[in-house]
């Protein structure tokens, strides 16, 4: 296999890095997370217009660039290096592939061109905040009851007896960019308990167009940024998250009208869980590249700092102990980068590459704080942003030991993951026993 990148791939990475160096610095990132959208809309539209970033992996027939997941991973490595808050992950990595795989020709023609040009953002909403399980990264999404299991809880879907469409009732927590996305892909159960199955539904979250307000009319009362105005039974609340560059939201559906993703004729035969698992593998590869970018960014800032910070009349970077620590971090980053690039070409390796990249990002970010000394612990410095990104990604798409445990179980290295989980049970004691066994298995693998 030729691991070298093409001139076009190198150009994508170079152009994006230069643009983010000018418009995506620490000051711009802090300003972007404070906006109601949680990102800079002007920069997002510029990335879409000049670089075609949201449509990078979409087909040309839908207005996309027609590239592969490799190009998308390279782009996300650069956005991760800058810790750029943007709807790229939720829209282009999670939602767009599902619309491409499961959507009807009409749905694809209606939605994908708007996603490609950046005028429409999307978010994947799964019940219980179990994104990693729904994507098949930490458990078998066919066996796990992540969407409610057909019983009470989760999000339930029923046919609308009047309009002929569907109605959704329930809520989903920790929805990435769910407070600002114009389109929600909601995973819901239908069919009742005997014939329970999980399907994906499209919920438009775009506010209807309003007539122009006359100049003499009083100004409308602004809606708080945390809570969006409900649209046909839809309420979205922006949550306080550990990592502000990863805005999360709670989506509440109260008899909300929805459109089935796909055709009604394929309700019984649609493999939604399989599509989610395939999307999860590709998303894991892209996320691994993004985590590598974040780790590399933290390491670069640390190296630059130790060259300038002096102690005992010399730069602390000249001390042998500091050199050894930085060398270890460099090896971790490069090993994770190699795994991420391999996974971009072979998405089946995505979950393991993601585990390695998340671990590297966590260790590098922690060492960056230590090597920065006292200033690294302050809110004014950007070192804590890298720590929060590494921790938040581990909570949202991991944790690392579960990513490895599930991958090992699928490969048959340490037995079946599902049977072992059932044997341990779901109690606190069982969870501790499972964590102990997982740690031993990961240690043996390393």
Automatic annotation (TrEMBL):
Its EC number is 1.-.-.-. Residues 6-118 form the Acyl-CoA dehydrogenase/oxidase N-terminal domain. InterPro entries: AcylCo_DH-like_C, AcylCo_DH/oxidase_C, AcylCoA_DH/ox_N, AcylCoA_DH/ox_N_sf, AcylCoA_DH/oxidase_NM_dom_sf. It holds the Pfam family Acyl-CoA_dh_N. It is an enzyme of class 1 (oxidoreductase). Residues 285-406 form the Acyl-CoA dehydrogenase/oxidase C-terminal domain. Keywords: FAD, Flavoprotein, Oxidoreductase. One of its GO terms (molecular function) is oxidoreductase activity. Its cofactor is FAD. PANTHER family: ACYL-COA DEHYDROGENASE (PTHR43884), ACYL-COA DEHYDROGENASE FADE28 (PTHR43884:SF20). Belongs to the acyl-CoA dehydrogenase family. This is Acyl-CoA dehydrogenase family protein. It comes from Streptomyces stephensoniae. The lineage of its organism: Bacteria, Bacillati, Actinomycetota, Actinomycetes, Kitasatosporales.
């Amino acid at each position: 296999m030729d691991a070298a990148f093409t001139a076009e791939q190198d150009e994508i990475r170079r152009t994006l890095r230069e643009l983010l160096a000018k418009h995506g610095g620490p000051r711009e990132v802090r300003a972007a997370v404070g906006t109601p959208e949680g990102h800079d809309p002007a920069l997002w539209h510029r990335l879409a217009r000049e670089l075609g970033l949201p449509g990078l992996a979409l087909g040309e027939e839908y207005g996309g660039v027609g590239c592969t997941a490799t190009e998308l991973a390279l782009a996300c490595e650069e956005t991760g290096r800058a810790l750029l808050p943007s709807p790229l992950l939720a829209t282009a990595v999670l939602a767009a592939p599902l619309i491409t795989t499961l959507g009807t020709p009409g749905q694809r023609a209606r939605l994908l061109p708007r996603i490609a040009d950046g005028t429409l953002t999307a978010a994947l909403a799964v019940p219980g905040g179990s994104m990693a399980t729904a994507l098949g990264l930490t458990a078998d999404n066919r066996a796990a009851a992540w969407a409610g299991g057909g019983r009470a809880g989760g999000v339930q879907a029923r046919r609308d007896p009047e309009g002929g469409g569907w109605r959704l009732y329930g809520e989903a927590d920790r929805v990435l960019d769910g407070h600002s996305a114009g389109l929600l892909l909601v995973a819901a159960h239908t069919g009742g308990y005997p014939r329970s199955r999980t399907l994906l539904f499209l919920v438009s979250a775009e506010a209807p167009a309003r007539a122009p307000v006359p100049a003499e009319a009083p100004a409308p009362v602004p809606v708080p940024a945390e809570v969006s105005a409900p649209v046909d039974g839809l309420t979205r609340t922006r949550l306080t998250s550990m990592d502000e560059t990863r805005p999360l939201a709670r989506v509440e559906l109260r008899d909300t009208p929805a459109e089935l993703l796909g055709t009604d004729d394929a309700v019984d035969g649609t493999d939604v869980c399989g599509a989610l698992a395939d999307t999860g593998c590709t998303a894991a590869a892209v996320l691994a590249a993004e985590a590598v970018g974040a780790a590399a960014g933290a390491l670069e800032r640390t190296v630059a700092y130790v060259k300038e910070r002096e102690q005992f009349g010399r730069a602390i970077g000249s001390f042998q102990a500091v050199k050894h620590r930085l060398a270890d971090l460099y090896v971790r980053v490069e090993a994770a980068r190699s795994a991420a690039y391999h996974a971009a070409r072979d998405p089946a390796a995505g979950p393991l590459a993601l585990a390695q990249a998340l671990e590297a990002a966590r260790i590098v970010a922690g060492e960056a704080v230590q090597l920065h000394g006292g200033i690294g612990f302050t809110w004014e410095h950007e070192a804590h942003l890298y720590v929060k990104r590494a921790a938040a990604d581990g909570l949202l798409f991991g944790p690392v030991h579960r990513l490895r445990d599930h991958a090992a179980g699928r490969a048959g290295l340490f037995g079946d993951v599902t049977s072992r989980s059932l044997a341990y049970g779901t109690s606190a004691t069982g969870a501790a026993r499972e964590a102990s066994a997982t740690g031993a298995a990961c240690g043996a693998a390393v």
